[in-house]
Amino acid sequence: MQQKYFMSRRNISSLLITGLMILYACKEIPKEQQQGNAKEFTEANYCFRKIMLHPADSSRQDVLRMSLTVIGDSVVGSYNWFPFKKDARRGILRGIRKDSGLQLTYFYMQEGGYDTADLRVILRDGKAIIEGGEPSLGLSAVMEQVSCLE
Length: 150
What we know:
Blueprint: H1 9-24, H2 31-34, E1 44-54, E2 57-71, E3 74-82, E4 89-98, E5 101-110, E6 113-124, E7 127-132, E8 141-146
Antiparallel strand pairs: 1-2, 1-8, 2-3, 3-4, 4-5, 5-6, 6-7, 7-8
């Protein structure tokens, strides 16, 4: 069952503040977190990307991007899907560090509608493992860690 989410002025303000926090925080990922089997998110910025090529034409690609800022036990970020064609999904993430991972609520817009989903993110071997949401939405993914300057 999908639940529609309508934006109030208060929610829009929260989204803007969250976006500004992400832009303001510019601390890079510590070197020890970039390699090896890191299991816990420390205070830093994290960026992830997954590029999916279309089998018939490699110039066509869908791109998933996620950026996260961890401050204390709080987490804010964005999670966007840019398909080769139309109907991108863009949204923000807000949540907490919990059990060596992140417990997040995803507020997103797609095809003119707003909705939310609960996600869990685990960091393993330089990859973000994202789980949650309705399977039909395709929110679950494994994404490579990249520089936040890209």
